[in-house]
Amino acid sequence: MAKHVVTLISGDGIGPEITKAMTRVVEATGVDIEWESVEAGADVMEKYGTPLPQHVLDSVRKNKVAIKGPITTPIGTGFRSVNVALRKELDLYTCLRPSFSIPGTGARYDNVDLVIVRENTEDLYAGIEFEEGSKGAEELIKFVADHGAGIIRPDSGISLKPISVTCTRRIVKFAFDYAIANGRKKVTAVHKANILKYSDGLFLKVAREVAEEYADSGIEFEDYIIDATCMQLVLHPEWWDVLVLPNLYGDILSDLAAGLIGGLGMAPGANIGADYAVFEPVHGSAPKYAGKDMANPTALILSAVLMLNHLGEREAADRVLAAVKTVLAEGEKVTYDIKRTNTGSTEGCVGTQTYADAVIEKL
Ligand code: NAP
Asked: Which end of the chain has the lower number of beta carbons within 10 A, N or C?
């Protein structure tokens, strides 16, 4: 048996092609790894009656580590996000999204080195929603009025934003432990506690309590309001170190941070819980590029770098990162998105697999 058995979910849209590029790069490092391929999403709905079949969850539970491509979520109808369900089922309570500048990407900034630690299980992403006109919505509107909490228009749809002490404690602790383990200097809690007193207010209160417990760690703590954070991230991306946020703000800031370093094709991620870890890029399935051998696989390859580190394969992880950096710095064999930000045109770009070949050559 291979030293590492990893569940592989290639996803849909551009998922299968970037997954192929990533697995080729990882295998070329010589790491002793076996992929256990399983599928989730719309394509398996008919066969299994669910977009997230039980055997997919069983595979991740058995192997403890998975890497996945993006999975399309139908908007406003159909099934709920498989990505969100996977995080909830496996209690992958941390979404870790490092954003760092790599020369050659043509990004607007060359001085970004921050990490987003996003709470992954609650907030407006909890999936607790009441459809406009439903009995649940009607009863909730009455409940709110009866408790003198406010008047909600009868034709409203409602999404709840639960934020708990338990989940806030563990995510802020994760942020501090990550900061300590990775030589970081500062943790910033981001919120809107001035307006959302009982949800974000609780998040801030608990974050301050946890920071107190880490007072001797040498890690600085501060808090910032989400709107001000957005502006300062764009003005001074070099200010930021580790940011810890409730789910929705974390989601939005992850894309903003990806924009600072050259776009979604560059932004890796990991979903980590107490028992399991699922690595995946920040970006989605980019359906318009599906099957065209155009998408940039860097975000997934860098997610594999996070995975290799998690598996203790540090040397292989360093080699992949160095190879990616070299190919991007040379700027010759890069995908359309990188060519476009560098030159304003996609002329001379290469496809997904040719880029992967170039990375493999530099390993
Ligand atoms: P998206 O798939 O991330 O794509 C948005 C745009 O980002 C693309 O049109 C492209 O921009 C750029 N992009 C994304 N990935 C890229 C890559 N690998 N290489 C180069 N450029 C890349 O966002 P979306 O269109 O909003 O979402 C599509 C579907 O994915 C939705 O169903 C959504 O729910 C789902 N989604 C899944 C996940 C997940 O599986 N974890 C995460 C997010 C979204 P240009 O056209 O400007 O080049």
From this structure: N
Judge if the beta carbon of residue 295 lies within 6 A of ligand 1: yes
Separation of CA 165 and ligand 1 centre (Å): 33
- The full DSSP string for 104-131 is TS--S-S--EEEEEEE-SSGGGG--EE-
Residue 297 one-letter amino acid = P
> What is the DSSP code string of 170-238?
HHHHHHHHHHHHTT--EEEEEE-TTT-TTTHHHHHHHHHHHHHHTGGGT-EEEEEEHHHHHHHHHH-GG
Return the minimum-mean-pLDDT range out of 19-33, 40-54, 88-102, 180-194. Answer: 40-54
Q: Which residues contact 250 (CB under 8 A, 6 or more apart)?
A: 95, 97, 116, 117, 118, 119
pTM of the complete model: 0.92
Question: How many structural domains comprise the chain?
Answer: 3
Say which amino acid occupies 39: E
Residue whose Cα lies nearest atom 40 of ligand 1: it is: 70
219 with 239, same domain: the answer is yes
Task: Report pLDDT for 76.
Answer: 60
Domain boundary among 260, 294, 321: 260
CATH number at residue 170: 3.40.50.2300
Select which of 43, 110, 227, 275 is catalytic: 227
What's the confidence (pLDDT) of residue 216?
A: 97
Residue of 264, 266, 294, 338 to test ligand 1 pocket, by largest number of atoms within 8 Å of CB: 264
Pocket lining: 302 vs ligand 1, CB cutoff 6 Å:
no
Q: Could you report the per-residue pLDDT of 267-322, keeping only the tens digit for each?
A: 999 999 999 999 999 999 999 999 999 999 999 999 999 999 999 999 999 999 99
* Judgement on whether residues 137 and 147 belong to the same structural domain of the protein: yes
Answer positive or negative: Cα dihedral of 332, 336, 339, 342: negative
Residue 146: half-sphere exposure toward Cβ, Cα within 13 Å: 6
Question: Is residue 180 within 8 Å of 211, Cβ to Cβ?
Answer: no
Active site residue 357: no
Mutate to test the pocket of ligand 1, among 105, 283, 293, 328 (most ligand atoms within 8 A of CB): 283
